[in-house]
Specification:
208 residues, DNA Polymerase III, Chain A, domain 2, 2 domains, 23% helix
Length: 208
C-alpha cells in the first residue's frame, strides 16, 4: 500500500535543499525529545526515507519525493510507503496542503513496545532466499508491515537511541500507523497479507 498516489507534482528548489546543509537545527518545544538532533543524524534519517532518483524514474508526480520537505514546523521525507517527521524547521518547501488528510492526524493510541523486542522479532525470522524477503512480515497491533519498513523504523530507533517505540495512531488494519520514536514520528503503510507464510507478531502494551 502506498501513501497518496496523487501527492503533489513540483519538486523542491535547489536553494531549499541547501538550507539543511548550512543550518544548525533547533528544536521547538517538544515534550518527547530530550535533546536536539545533530545535523548528521537528521540527514541520515531523512535520507533513509527519501525516494531515490532511480525509484522515481518514470513517475513524474513523485520526483518531489527525492528531497526532504516541510509540514508546518516539521522536516519530513517520504518514499511513498513511509513518512518520517522530525520536530525541526529548517526551511524546506512546505507541503502541508499536499498531506492534508494523510499527516498529521489526531493521535488515537498510546501503547508501546520495546526496540529490543522488535529487533529480536526481526532476528527470529528463518533464513530465506533474497527474493523471498517480501514474505517477511510483522504484525504490530492491528496491522501487518513489510520487513523492509520495519527495518526503517528500527534504523530511526537506533539513531535516536530509543529503548521503546510508541504507537500514537492506529485505527484500522489497512490504514497507516504512526509511531513515535524519542520525539521523531514515523508513519508506515501496512500491507495486505492474510495468508503470510512467515509472520512475527507484537502486541503493544498500554503506556504506564
Amino acid at each position: 500500500m502506498q501513501i497518496g498516489s496523487s501527492l503533489g507534482q513540483s519538486a523542491p528548489t535547489a536553494d531549499s535543499v541547501r538550507v539543511i546543509r548550512s543550518t544548525q537545527p533547533q528544536n521547538p518545544k517538544n515534550t518527547t525529545m530530550k535533546k536536539p538532533i545533530s545535523n548528521a543524524v537528521m540527514m541520515s534519517m531523512l535520507k533513509k526515507f527519501t525516494l531515490s532518483e532511480r525509484e522515481a524514474k518514470g513517475y513524474e508526480g513523485r520526483k518531489w519525493m527525492c528531497s526532504p520537505f516541510s509540514i508546518g514546523l516539521q522536516t519530513c521525507a517520504t518514499d511513498a510507503h513511509a513518512v518520517i517527521a522530525l520536530p525541526l524547521a529548517v526551511g524546506f518547501e512546505d507541503r502541508a496542503k499536499t498531506f492534508t488528510g494523510i499527516y498529521p492526524l489526531p493521535h488515537t493510541d498510546h501503547t508501546y513496545f520495546t526496540t529490543a523486542e522488535l529487533s529480536q522479532k526481526v532476528e527470529d525470522f528463518p533464513k530465506l532466499e533474497k527474493w523471498e524477503i517480501l514474505t517477511k512480515q510483522i504484525r504490530i497491533g492491528k496491522s501487518i508491515f513489510s520487513i523492509l519498513l520495519i527495518k526503517k523504523l528500527l534504523f530511526v530507533a537506533k539513531k535516536m537511541k530509543a529503548k521503546k517505540i510508541t504507537v500514537t495512531r492506529q485505527t484500522e488494519p489497512n490504514r497507516d500507523t504512526v509511531f513515535n520514536v524519542a520525539g521523531v514520528e514515523v508513519l508506515l503503510m501496512p500491507i495486505v497479507a492474510e495468508n503470510a507464510s512467515v509472520l512475527q507478531e507484537i502486541d503493544p502494551q498500554p503506556t504506564p
